[in-house]
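task queued by scheduler; priority normal; single chain, no ligands, no partner chains; default sampling; output format set to structure tokens
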Amino acid sequence: MKVSIRDLSKMTGFSPATVSNALNHKKGVNKETAEEIFRVAKETGYLSANAVTKIRLLIFKKNGLIIDDTPFFQSLIEGFEEECHRLGYEMVISRADQREPDYLNQVQEILREQGAAVVVLATEMMDGDLEPFRNPPCPLVILDHWSESMELNAVLINNADAARMITEHVLDYGHTEVGYLRGSFRIKGFRSRFVGFQTALKKRRLPYREEYTVTLGTSMNDAYQDMLQYLKKNPKLPTAFFADNDMIALGAMKALQERGYRIPEDVSIVGFDDLSFSAISSPALTTLRVPNKEMGKIAVRRLVELVEGIGTDTVTKTQVCPSIIYRDTVKKME
């Protein structure tokens, strides 16, 4: 069985972080401690086995429309970093932009790096984009995406059930005409949220109304501008909207308010993600809180299991479950 950094920690009595820092020649580890760690690492065969000492977070970008425009991912990365440090692994962040001509070469170089395991933050991936990551030469986990072929370990949000749950909350408040604020860049997460939204309507025997679907840009400003253009046509609006995420919801709210609509008296809105400024918007946004920091930690833990040979015969798909944060953007109908 492979010796891990945690095994070396137990053998030497030093923390996993100290062991990792010593093996990676980081500052802050005194000479005697480093020598003892290297001695045990050599005796156990850890160093000669090209052991993984580094975890690389590879941020996939298709166009940057999701990754670049939301603060959602900062907390996820913080959780990722904390868990790498706790388990004694060096953390490195890389980016691979599909628009660059040498994209495939970049991916292959990263996957073949000696002594490294990889988590791919794949939020922006569409169908087919996982192809270069199949049969990887290193331990690998997909984060915020998944493969229908079920060949890659993944950690993701339970998008469909969460969207169904918050839509049911809106329906429980007496709304029977609920529209959909649809993100223009159709990442897999958004498509799953739409399925959950439709499921909630079907359960209550309510029709999905195409005329109540508004496609908006995925940045807050684009959503605001697109909603303003839509409202200039003076369309008939539903009494409530489910938005693909908070950025879209908040941009749409601003446009509605500028056009004289009161929220939630005239139009109710719910979002998804619980961004930090959703609590201080006016009114404060009812939304779904995603345990994004824990998502990062779970991805690291699963990757370390693969590095240590635990559960390698089983492919896992771990879903984290959001919770509703009840605030002030849903009106209770009379």
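post-processing summary
- The mean pLDDT is 90.
- The domain at 159-290 is CATH 3.40.50.2300 (Rossmann fold).
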